[in-house]
Amino acid sequence: MDCLYFFLPTEGQEYKLARVVSLYIAALPYFKYTSPVLQRNSSMAAIQEDCSGGETRTTFHPTLWGDYFLKYKPQSSAQQAHMRERMEILLEQVRTEMKEANEIPQILELVITIERLGLGYHYENEIAQLLDVVFKSDYDDNNLHLVSLRFYLLRKNRYDVSSDVFHKFEDKQGGFVQLDTNSLLSLYNAAHLSIKGEDVFDMAVSFTRRHLLGALENLESAFAGEVSSSLLTPPFRRVGILEARNYLSCYTNKVTRNEAILELAKLNFNILQLHFCEELKDVTMWWNKIKMKSRLSFVRDRIVETYFWINGTSYNLEYSYSRIIATKVTAFMTIIDDIFDTYSSTADSMQLAEAINRWDEDAVNMLPEYMKDIYLYLLETFHSFEDHLGPKNSYRVVYLKEAFKKLVQAYSDELKWRDENYVPKTLNEHLQVSSVSIGTSVVACAIFVGMDDTTVETLNWVSSDQKLLKSFAIYTRFTNDMASTKREQAGGIVPLLSNRT
Question: Which residue numbers delimit the Terpene synthase N-terminal domain (predicted)?
């Protein structure tokens, strides 16, 4: 929930940029999960008995965002034009600096800075060329920080690089010979990119973590914050746009900062933020239409949270419609999930599943009144995807429909398990259903459907039973269930992690 506030520009918390433009950047104080504000307004459920039907139903509190993004007023068109003009100048200036970089340490620091500040997508070719130079060079250094940084950047960018280089830094006691905090932090980050069999990194993680924790109280505040963030979540696992925003604060305080890169990063973030607010306006208007049409008060009002999840997959401007499609589809997944889990009777849920499988307006006649509007709006929304994609690419939505049908079938299977008090005999039996019901295949398909360069081959791949996609689904299912087991058990839902699996 804290992360959502990065979408909210706050007056008085702006970065001052060159010339006459002052640009807002999200900098609200973090709200902790114990905040009274969030306790009052978050989408936590209140379970109550329905007097008419005897069903146990769940009411979710309103979102704390309300209609903020419908009322949000961006900078003037003149200001935005100046921002983009200035950004183009800086992009070329930094590009020139990248072309002129010829020393390995200089290249490493330049690339890591550009990537962490969220600028990498502007310089994909330049970064690839620089990393090729680093990879092919006969570079051997006794500086643990630089060796770790080299390894981190190369492996993160899919180069085949060996971890053997770290053995020379080991001591006889099972530790490492360089104990300066910067080197330890770089090694800690690199060690989290280990693969099976790299024992040196198993030791490195525990060793560096212990020493970094011990050094925290003696570090200056900006670097202490960077160390704390890495100990909580290694950089490569972070949401890209949040990493860019967080690192902006750290980089601003660095004595060795590159002023052109810093100004570019601020402009880039602000331009992205303006665009995100426009996307959120779109999905908020769409969501409000759902609420007016469906009158389903039990549904979780989490459209901004949903958008944030999707934004984590890619924040590039070119993937704007991909984010919008995936957000709307994920919101429908939440609605259908809430209908199955907390509101509808089994009979009504099965009728909805059958209607979705038919995917036809005439199927609305088989549904109870409270489901009709939401079903028709589902069909209408998918039709709007086809219209937006146009005659050439509307075929993509067929793949998305099929993925959505499989998801709802998995919901139906889980509902049968719940009603029959059935616990799967093996973990694999459970995963046959639960790895589908987690919805990752639908979200992945939705993301690809909205991308300009998606091909038939891409959609066939994402719709197949690939090992990578299955692993992603299982990982997501495990992490989801570990966080929600108590809530699901209270609601009578069969948990994934049980004593019998």
Answer: 64-231
- For the chain, the domains span 101-257, 316-490
Q: For residue 455, which amino acid is it?
A: T
**Is the distance from CB of 404 to CB of 444 less than 8 angstroms?**
no
Burial of 164: CB neighbours in 10 Å, binned 0-12, 13-18, 19+ = exposed
Specify the range with the lowest mean pLDDT, choosing from 31-35, 90-94, 262-266.
31-35
Distance of CA 345 to the CA centre of its chain: 33
Q: At what angle do helices 440-449 and 320-338 cross, to 10 degrees?
A: 150
Instruction: Match 């905090």 to its residue by tokens.
Output: 181
Strand pairing category for 22-24 and 56-60: unpaired
pTM for the model stands at: 0.83
* Torsional sign, CA 188, 189, 195, 198: negative
Fold of 316-490: Farnesyl Diphosphate Synthase (1.10.600)
What are the tens digits of pLDDT across the range 140-171?
788 999 999 999 999 999 999 999 999 999 88
DSSP letter assigned to residue 30: P
pLDDT digits (tens, 9 = 90+) for 310-322: 999 989 999 999 9
